[in-house]
Design goal:
By secondary structure, the protein is of the alpha+beta class. It has three domains: 116 residues, Butyryl-Coa Dehydrogenase, subunit A, domain 1 (Orthogonal Bundle), CATH 1.10.540; 108 residues, Butyryl-CoA Dehydrogenase, subunit A, domain 2, CATH 2.40.110; 146 residues, Butyryl-CoA Dehydrogenase, subunit A, domain 3, CATH 1.20.140. The protein has twelve helices and eight strands. Helix 7 runs antiparallel to helix 8. The protein is globular and about 80 Å long.
């Protein structure tokens, strides 16, 4: 029996037989890093990165081993995402959303087996990415409640979907959408429908012109009476049945988002170390690295990154080992790691001055990218509010 990657039972010779996806990722990441600045500058989508990921077998990393994938757990996948996040966080973001969906499929009792098998096969055999489309102009973040305006109407020939989704990460390359919508029934049900990309009535509007993660292709997708099969329901429930969060989805989302922003911070850390070593101001006559102030600030950076590494590794490991985790714990991990990552880049900027903010140097891009961690669900205020209410017994 071949155990999935990331499982605690994979040890010794069994682990040695597995492909070294980390080594493959490091090779690809070098290419991604070389292209990242141009894609950021142009806001262009890195199609070539995903072709290379597919050819290396990395798109099927979290697909169940029983269905032909690597069966990687959260800990191993987070390591892969962190490497790519350090090289090109836009690519890492798209990939992480794809990984999340396949991990949820592998562990979910609500995903129809037929749909999950079909998506797994396509991902193993070729370039087939999926993402969940949830956010809408009027709804905002679904995590804060409210019914979606996107409507799925059941007919004799199929579902007919009408709606407008925003921040649809990976829109230019997605093959499948897991669309959050409500039915048009007298008592609406809410949930996800699996919709193939490119159907008649589907339109991508290139609205993504953001401060950071500019190459993520997080455009709007509009559905205008789009017809898709009746057996495409993933999980449709009464609205009140969605009050409890999906712990699997919340946990892996937290881990992977944290890994992306930690990767950005590590890229900033590596650049500032080189800057300090080789920058020799005339009035000092020695590298900036010799200054106690620089050493002190860099030490603080190292401390934050050490905390991040421990949090991601231990939390992902507990998830893989089947330890019961809560959404509140997940939210704390995301809040802590992303804020540490922002602080790391801000500290690096404090050491570099104008050099760090010039577009000729990557630190400026890292700063714009890492700031996106603050608006990624769950937002910090929501996490703090939940923790505070729980502490007060509300």
């Amino acid at each position: 029996m071949v155990m999935p990657l990331g499982h605690s039972a994979v040890r010794g010779r069994a682990a040695q037989r597995e492909p070294d996806y980390v080594e493959r990722t490091l090779v690809l990441a070098a290419n991604f890093a070389e292209r990242a600045a141009e894609h950021d500058r142009n806001g262009s989508f890195p199609f070539e990165n995903f072709r290379e990921l597919s050819e290396a077998g990395l798109l099927s990393l979290t697909v169940s081993a029983a269905l032909g994938g690597a069966g990687a757990g959260a800990r191993y996948s987070a390591r892969i995402i962190g490497i790519i996040g350090k090289a090109d966080p836009s690519t890492a973001l798209v990939l992480s959303m794809h990984y999340i969906n396949h991990l949820v499929m592998a562990r979910s009792v609500t995903w129809p087996a037929r749909l999950a098998r079909g998506l797994a096969r396509e991902t193993v055999e070729g370039l087939a990415l999926i993402n969940a489309l949830r956010v809408e102009p009027e709804l905002g973040s679904p995590a804060r409640g409210g019914l979606p305006a996107t409507v799925a109407r059941r007919t004799e020939t199929g579902w007919r979907l009408t709606g407008h989704k925003i921040y649809s990460t990976g829109a230019p390359i997605l093959k499948w959408y897991a669309v959050w919508a409500r039915t048009d029934e007298s008592e609406p049900r809410v949930g996800q429908f699996l919709v193939p990309a490119g159907l008649p009535g589907t339109r991508i509007v290139e609205t993504w012109d953001h401060l950071g993660l500019r190459a993520s292709g997080s455009h709007d997708i509009i559905f205008d009476d789009v017809v898709f099969p009746l057996d495409s329901e993933i999980d449709i429930r009464k609205p009140e049945e969605w009050k409890a969060p999906d712990v699997t989805q919340a946990t892996v989302h937290t881990i992977f988002v944290a890994a992306i922003y930690d990767g950005i911070a590590r890229a900033a850390r590596d650049w500032v170390i080189e800057f300090l070593r080789y920058r020799v101001p005339a009035n000092l006559g020695a590298p900036l690295a010799t200054l106690p102030r620089a050493q002190d600030i860099l030490g603080g950076i190292e401390a934050r990154l050490a905390v991040n590494a421990r949090l991601i590794e231990s939390f992902a490991g507990e998830f893989d080992d089947g330890i019961a985790l809560t959404s509140a714990e997940s939210n704390v991990i995301k809040l802590t790691v992303t804020n540490n990552a922002v602080a790391v880049v801000e500290d690096a900027l404090a050491l570099t001055g104008n050099h760090g903010l010039t577009r000729a140097n990557p630190l400026e891009r890292h700063y714009r990218d890492v700031l996106c961690g603050r608006v990624h669900t769950p937002q910090d205020d929501s996490t703090r509010l939940g923790l505070g209410r729980a502490a007060l017994g509300f």
